[in-house]
Amino acid sequence: MALGKDADCKAELKVTPVRKQVPILYDHLLDGHFLRVTIRNVGFETLLLLQPDDGSGSGLRTPHVSWDVRSASGPIVQIYGIQDDNGINAVTPDELIRLYPKTSVELSVWVPPLVVDGPGIYRIKARYVNDPDEKWRGTPLSKHDPEALRMIKMSNACDLTSEEVEIEAVADKAASGN
């Protein structure tokens, strides 16, 4: 079986709301942890991918994780991740994912928040892009693990977009009863 760059990235990205109503934080953010984002290997080859980490939501490092957020009436609210600094965590081997055929993994730590323009119904899609040849930007907060960097260079190039999911963004108090 091919692994990494030699295998096609036959995978699906899926977004599943953890609750019916997602609370708005700081007047315009939805915490990405209220949404379960998973990658499923639908092919016959083992894939080598990465969990997102600090910098993934703003394009400072691979993989990139971003949101396409549209209000129910159609206008785009957000089509990118957010980050307010240039720092990125040092890469470690536990960020690497060996995704065997017909298995799934949840993106767990650094799923970026979604930007909304207030309470209401939104249609969202997630996007996951792993580019093993990407030159990382940003300032490492400590030294990267050399073996992890070597394995990242061998990972699968992958560009996945989820199906559209509808969510309801509510003021934090309204969501607390779910």
List keywords for this structure.
mainly beta; eight-stranded mixed β-sheet; disordered C terminus
Describe, in short, the structure shown.
With 178 residues, this protein is mostly beta strands. It is built from two helices and 15 strands. Strands 2, 3, 6, 7, 11, 12, 14 and 15 form an eight-stranded mixed sheet that branches. Strands 1-4-10 form a three-stranded antiparallel sheet, with no helix packed on it.
Explain what you see.
With 178 residues, the chain is mainly β. It is 7% helix and 40% strand. It has 2 helices and 15 strands. Strands 2, 3, 6, 7, 11, 12, 14 and 15 form an 8-stranded mixed sheet that branches. A hairpin with a 4-residue loop joins strand 6 and strand 7. The protein is globular, with a radius of gyration of 17 Å. The relative contact order is 0.30. Residues 174-178 have low confidence and may be disordered.
Radius of gyration: 17 Å
Order of H and E elements = EEEEEEEEEEEEEHEEH
Give average pLDDT, whole number.
84
From the spread of the alpha carbons, the general shape counts as globular
The total strand number stands at 15
Q: How can the largest sheet be summarized?
A: 8 strands, mixed
Structural class: mainly beta
Number of domains: 1
User: What is the first-to-last residue Cα distance?
Assistant: 45 Å
Number of discrete helical segments = 2
Quote the beta fraction. Answer: 35-45%
